[in-house]
Amino acid sequence: MNLERRPLLQKNGNNIKQVKYIMVLHTCLAFTFSGIGSLLAVYFHQHLGFSEGMSTFFTNTTLATKYLFALLGGVLVDTVLGKFAAICIGSLLFLLGNMLLFGPELLGKFLHTKFEYDWIVFTAFYLGSVGNGLATPSISTFIGDQFSPEQEGTRAIYFSWFYWLIQVSAIVSNLAIPFLMKYFPLYITFVALSGSLLFGIPTFLVPFKQYRKVTPSKSTYPLFFNVLYHAIRNRRRYIFSQKVGTNFHWLDPALDYYPPQTVEDVKNALNVMLIFLPMPFFWAIFFQTTSLWVFQASQTDLVIAGFEIPPNAVTALNPLMNLFLIPFFSHLIYPFFKRRKHPIRPFTKMTLGFITSALSVVCAGLLQAKINDPTSPKQTVLLILPQYFLLSCGEILLSVTAYEFSYIQSPPSLRAMLMEVWILTLFIGSVLLSLVGLTDLGR
């Protein structure tokens, strides 16, 4: 690969401080995206007057737009743009979308009038989703590009901070934004979200000449699909001309056209994709935290210790629980079973993850039954804690395990493509939940 003349890292690693500038932008993007996610359902329902069903639909199509463009952007990043350009373009589009949100609100405040600007709102949200989808997936790999092979240990430390910052940003944003919406004029909320990006983008650009940028390479999609095509097309001839044994694989006919290692890589890639198959159903449950579960919280008693919280503040529960549950599982639960010669294998973790995620839906259903019962007193919002706890456990057992396991099992030549397939599962999950919103338009 061709690298720029001025690499970030020398052998002694003295210039590793440049990575911190990327982390600043990453934190600002995470803060803004989490904030947008926490306000969408309430904003569509309370401020634009849509039903709960339509608000759920718009909330999740906004998420779907992000993941769709993360998928499409991944192809462009790998083949045309490169990671640095994708981060810059995506961040600026995300900023533009946020600025479109507070502009009309701010003008309405000072001109003492109310604008009919639904089309601007939808343009802003979807434009922001396009930008965020383009920028965010490139940041983690761009950080990885800054490290030389001998700095693997340091890279691991930075990636630990990377994931920790996502959780902390989500907690702060999911708490701050709902309270800003409730107790301050709406434009203040959008100014805060835009202000985060106005700080992060220039900070990221400060050392732009020192960043290590990997030149885009050829897409691996044509190779992958060509192997599948030749395996199917050549199947009959291969079977009749070869001594097909018990170890025959349906991709083996492609060996007449491609080296054994290439065909083996495609086999491994397909095995990883099998792991991804159930993930959209998990995401369809998980994304309820920013829509359906917010509306459920709004039907409960939101007063805690004499203080009323906004219903969308409950979106902070998932990242807050993850902050404690991730080390709890990694340093206590998993080692406990491993020391007793009964390690929890990835398939077992994922199975348990599906069970706990399903139980979170059961808890949500039981709570909703109590809420709908006219003979029952109004339920406290604290009763929403069990479903968030079970879902957070499910996320760690299922999502984190599947992502880590697939990365390890992925052939290096097709790893980028498989990470894009992972994003596809997020897209499908958000679309599935959007369809749920369409089935309940009357609410």
Number of helices: 15
Biggest sheet descriptor: 2 strands, antiparallel
What strand order characterises the main sheet? 1-2
Shape: globular
Note poorly predicted spans: 1-15
Tell how many strands the DSSP assignment holds. Answer: 2
Radius of gyration from the CA trace?
24 Å
Q: State the oligomer.
A: single chain
Query: How widely separated are the two ends?
Result: 55 Å
Distinctive features:
mainly alpha; 443 residues; globular; two-stranded antiparallel sheet
What does this 3D model show about the protein?
72% of the residues lie in helices and 1% in strands. The chain has 15 helices and 2 strands. Strands 1-2 form a two-stranded antiparallel ribbon. Helix 1 runs parallel beside helix 5 and helix 2 packs across helix 4. It is globular and about 75 Å long.
Strand and helix map with partners:
Blueprint lengths: L18 H29 L4 H30 L1 H29 L6 H28 L6 H32 L2 H20 L15 H13 L1 H7 L18 H17 L2 H8 L5 H7 L4 E2 L2 E2 L8 H23 L6 H27 L12 H25 L5 H24 L5
Antiparallel strand pairs: 1-2
Helix pairs in contact: 1-2, 1-4, 1-5, 1-6, 2-3, 2-4, 2-15, 3-4, 3-6, 5-6, 5-12, 9-15, 10-14, 10-15, 12-14, 13-14
Brief account:
It is built from 15 helices and 2 strands.
